[in-house]
Amino acid sequence: MTTELAEKTKPASHSQILAALAREGLLRIGVPKELGGSGGDLRDVVYAVAQASRQSLQMAVTFAAQRLLIEVLLRGENIGLMEYRVPGLMSGDISGNCTAAWSQREEPTPAIARDTGRGWLVSGLTPAVPNLGRDWFLASVPVAFDESSRYALALFRSDEDGLMRTPASFTEGTDAMARASVELRKVYFRDDEIIASDGRAVVTALASLAAGFKVAIAAGAYLRAAETRGQNVGHALLHTAVGNWVEQVGVAANKGGDTRVAQSVLKEQLQFASGLDDAGNGPALRQTLALIAKL
Predict the structure, then answer these.
(1) Are residues 80 and 112 in the same domain?
(2) Does residue 145 or residue 290 have the better pLDDT?
(3) Which whole-number Å values give the CA distances from 171 to 24, 57, 128, 175, in the listed order?
(4) Domain boundary at 65, 95, 125, which?
(5) Are residues 244 and 257 in the same domain?
(6) Domain of 162: which CATH number?
(7) How far apart, in whole angstroms, are the C-alpha atoms of residue 105 and residue 107?
């Protein structure tokens, strides 16, 4: 995978990165062909994210977050909403993320919906996540409609009355790396914007994909750090380690649900980085892993 962004010395903007991902068809990987995708499975997506990270951390984060929301829509039961929104996400016309799946909290705190008799008024605050564009985005948010522990996944547009994008303090790199929370203040909501009535099932099923994306981002960063320092990126040990990491999380993502594989690989990556010479790639890789952990 080669992109025009790899040849630029100045960091690209969020919109430029999304446009490049769309032009190269990367956001269509793993999406069924009958829906406008290029086919393949989630292992192919994880490999593509790792390759994107080898060029640009910002590109990989944008790619992973955008593709996660696409997958949420594909897994939901709202076919009409999926068919309406997935094409725009694949073409890069709008950015987005699944706040519950990306943040990987054991138990997301859902927004609360109050019945008005004509719809719902939803209030709540999401964790800060990347890929929520400054002007136009979609966000999947967990919403509880009663007093039970169950929650649905609902899709909100950035132009909804009462919805606010709140930037987080962590904004290293370009705006493509910036995280933001979504605050809902009595946002009007209809049932036809529910992605999945059993939100927990979808978030659990995609937990391994979200965790695998972060492993893939780190794996690609390892190769990029070595390449930047002019070292031999064909070194057998490094390539073998990276290949094994991506293969493990890619297989786990296809199976779904279990994050233990990704957690184990992340520990292995930290151990690998800690064992590198401080005069070589060690400091840069440890800094990159710390950066990814904040995402």
Answers:
(1) no
(2) 145
(3) 26, 13, 11, 7
(4) 95
(5) yes
(6) 2.40.110.10
(7) 5
SS3 167: strand
Same domain, 68 and 134: no
Contact 104, 187 (CB under 8 A): no
Neighbours of 172 (CB within 10 A): 10
Same domain (yes/no): 114, 135? yes
CA distance 46 to 41: 9
Q: Which domain holds residue 120?
A: 97-199
Query: Quick one: three-class SS letters along 134-162?
Result: CCCEEEEEEEECCCCCCCEEEEEECCCCC
Based on its alpha-carbon atoms, the radius of gyration of the chain, rounded to whole angstroms, reads: 19
Question: With the C-alpha atoms ordered 29, 31, 32, 36, is the resulting torsion angle positive or negative?
Answer: negative
Lowest mean pLDDT among 25-39, 176-190, 216-230, 280-294: 280-294
State the total domains in the chain.
Answer: 3
Co-location of 69 and 157 in the same domain = no
DSSP SS3 for 111: strand
pTM across the whole model: 0.85
- Average pLDDT, integer, range 212-227: 79
Burial class (CB in 10 A: 0-12, 13-18, 19+), 111: buried
